[in-house]
Structure prediction request, 231 residues.
Amino acid sequence: MSVIFPKWMNALPTLGALGAMGGAAVVALGGWYWATPDFFEVGYSPVQPGSGFDHQIHAGKLGMDCRYCHSNVEKSPEANIPSVSTCNACHGENRVSPARSSATDEKVQFIRDAYDEDKSIEWRRIHKLPDYVRNFPHDVHLTAGVSCLSCHGQVKSMPQVYQDQGLGMGWCLDCHRHPEAALVPQDKVTDLLWVEGELNARAKGQGTTDTQALLGQLWDAPPQTCGACHQ
Ligand code: HEC
Ligand code: HEC
Ligand code: HEC
Ligand code: HEC
Ligand code: HEC
Prediction:
């Protein structure tokens, strides 16, 4: 059994039941791939604190780059959420931008309150893999040329972020088997409008990039072995 069930799986509540099934567990392994509920949480979009945060205004209309706020996304496995001081740089009491309409003043008051009280804003998390998926590195994917668009959708047109993709195991593996379909030049990964146009064109056989050449951006072939993601 130790070969079929590596150590990490001890954390799975289902293990006991499957162990009891003995040989049937091998069949169940195949079943998991299909049984993983790929679309379970698509659309999930919890109400955020204060007046929330509008990506359509900031990343869309104002054209701010994702990395202005998610500054670690290319440098670390975890994407960071910006601190209050990042927001306060524009929305603080004495700032000139944005143009000070009283409506906006009211909507950003929660930022000033948090800043004055030295508190953080408790943004509610949207994308979350189960704990037994130990390894999901943002940095590696972005360096390889996988755009935020492929995993988070067209965030530039989201007034409120929602989960766009299923994030199930089959979803990860589908791309790992055929990564070339999703790859874009490294310097375009946060240019979500360009990427959307390119991937749409590619689907019609009219893409402008050489997908085979883009495979050269990979450090290694995307892993399909259990331990790579579960450890
Ligand atoms: C001005 C700062 C700012 C910019 C620019 C920005 N974001 Fe965000 N982002 C936030 C904040 C604050 C949150 C947390 C609140 C929320 O979920 O809406 C967030 C949340 C997210 C989430 C959801 C995280 C979770 O909880 O799962 C994703 C995905 C995301 N951003 C992607 C992007 C992408 C892609 C871009 C570039 C197109 C971008 N962001 C640009 C500030 C920013
Ligand atoms: C580079 C400057 C800049 C930064 C940084 C910034 N904003 Fe804004 N924000 C703006 C501008 C410009 C507007 C549009 C104001 C208007 O239309 O009156 C705006 C509008 C808003 C509004 C009002 C939205 C609405 O529905 O009208 C909220 C709320 C807001 N921002 C929250 C945030 C939060 C939270 C952060 C930090 C994660 C942040 N902003 C970071 C420039 C910025
Ligand atoms: C290959 C798919 C993929 C790509 C590409 C990707 N993400 Fe993610 N992102 C995820 C997954 C999966 C999670 C949940 C991770 C977890 O739970 O450990 C996530 C989580 C996040 C979070 C929430 C982090 C937190 O701690 O609350 C933010 C913010 C985020 N991503 C922003 C981005 C931005 C910005 C980009 C592009 C620059 C990007 N992501 C590219 C798949 C991706
Ligand atoms: C849209 C395509 C795509 C999706 C979706 C995707 N990946 Fe990947 N992943 C890649 C590519 C391409 C690489 C190869 C990166 C390299 O080695 O340069 C990779 C590599 C990895 C690696 C190896 C990292 C390393 O250090 O070598 C892990 C682990 C991984 N992915 C986990 C995941 C998980 C978990 C998911 C699902 C939640 C996921 N990936 C979804 C494209 C994707
Ligand atoms: C590319 C990354 C990746 C690889 C490789 C991978 N998994 Fe997974 N696995 C995931 C993700 C992501 C989930 C979480 C799915 C979800 O949230 O429903 C998962 C879920 C699971 C689950 C729980 C399923 C459920 O329905 O709750 C089991 C068991 C599992 N994987 C076993 C395996 C085995 C055995 C292998 C090797 C044959 C493997 N995984 C290879 C990413 C991966």
